[in-house]
Structures are given as structure tokens and as C-alpha cells.
Request: fold
Amino acid sequence: MKAIEDGFRPATHRRSHVSVRTMEHIRALIVDDSSVMRKIVERSLRQAGVELDKVVEAGNGAEALAALGKEPVDLILCDINMPVMDGLEFVKQLPTVENAKGVPVVMITTEGSENHVVQALSAGAKGYIRKPFTPEQVKEHVLPVVGRKS
Amino acid sequence: MSTDTSLLTRSHQENWLPVLELAIEEVFEIMVGQRVKPAPKTESPQPGGFTAMVGIAGALCGILTISCSKKTAREVAVCMLGPEIGDSEEQVSDALGEVCNMIAGNFKNKLSSASQSCMLSVPTVIKGEEYSYRSLADGEVLDTVMLFSDAPLLVCLQLHS
Reply:
């Protein structure tokens, strides 16, 4: 599956409600059990040209759902392998959170199998990036889902 | 746990060490921003450092570990996060654990059949002056020493037969 080898990018990128906000005011939720990886993802987003107004961090899916209940975000980047609630379960539960409806989710994970990609997309993810990743890959996969050309 | 015998057979028949070393080199170059290169096995980390480990389960069972001195582990973390980490051992542990996780994932993704049918555990990191660990994985052992800024990193993949 070529998409797996190259890193996944969906054939069509549905614009989310992010388009009603300017790119200068993106609020991102980064979900990863590694604080190091959360910082690296944030740095990569900035290097990709996403000007972040606010970054909310969560260590697992349950924390992320709780955070979304308190404040809305425009973009979610999420790991898969996490304790308590993994990324796939988090994406499945996302539609139950009022603040999260229509918010694009991009998975960033070491799990690069076709099964994981299919599960993530079926659950509602809009993109899939495999670790290790370059800022260019983040740019290629994230900008389209927030309504910008990469 | 049932295992995929074709993968186990392949682990005996094929030389996976270059695949593991390539997975390590890619992770360090892309995510740490530093190149590493294989070194003679006479090089070994100083005792009293860090060991990060990630379990592999499924068609391939085993454990991947990466061990290095405290100084080297901190240098890896500084390369990933910048000097502002100070003396935070939590950040150092987290960084080394994530490096181990990415090496395990990158390695299994390079073995197409393993990628489809293997899961990785959340990383565990041991630190301290005096410790030892023993894996019950009793099959093939792939180990290599890589030089990071002239300091040795020992990476070991122990497979369950």
C-alpha cells in the first residue's frame, strides 16, 4: 500500500470549521503520553508554518476528552499507543464531545500498519503520520486538513 | 501466545542487523538531529546510566532495549528538546523512552509482515547506578553499538523463540 510507505494523506481533505478562523489563531490539542513527543510535535507544527495561538496538551485519550470538554480547539494531533485510553478509542469517542465536532484529527504514531491506518480513518481521523517524521511531512499532512495548501 | 513461525524462521535465515541499524540511524538523524554510526562491540556504555525498553508482541515477540550513560542520555534529550531541560531526569527518561519506541516501530515497519501483526508496549526506562535486567525472550539476539557524539549506545533486540 503506497499510502503506508509514503505516509498517509487522504485523497480529499474536507475543510473543517478551522477555515472560519485565521491560520494565525490555530488552537491545537496534542495528545501523546510522552511529554517529549508533545513538544516535538508542537515545534514541528510551528516549523510547518502553523501559527499556534494556543497548545493544549493531554497524556492520553481520556485526558484529551476532558480537556475538550473545557475548551474548543481547531486541530488535534494524536498518538495511538497510550495508557488509559488509546488514540483509536479517543477518535471513536470524539463525536460525543460537543466542542470537538468537525475538528480534524491527524494521527502521529509509530504504528504504521495498514490495519492501524484503516482503523484510524474509519474512526474519523483525517491524516496519518508515521514516526519518525520530518517537519516537511507534518506540513504535507497537516496544512491541508486545516484548510491550507502544503 | 501464538507466534508467526514464518517471521521466526526469517529471523534465523535473514540478517536483520542492518535493518535494525538503519532503523536506529533514521530515528537519530530525523528526530534527534544527530547522526549515529555503528561502532566496534568493544565499546560499551559506562555503568550507571539509563536503559529504555519497549516490548514487541504479536507475530514477533521480544524486547528492544537501548542503554547509555547518564551523560549521553542527557545529550540525546538536549538534542531533542534544547538546553532548557536543565537537570530534569524525567525529560531525559522520556526522551530516551521515545527514541526506543520509535526505533522499535521503525524496525517493525521495515519488516512488512511484522508491521501488520505486531504491537508495541508503552516504553519503560530504568535509571540508576546499579541495576541489571533479564529478559525472558530466549531466541535470536540482535545487538549493536552505535556511536553518538563518540559515546556508545547499546541497542539490543531480544526475540522470543
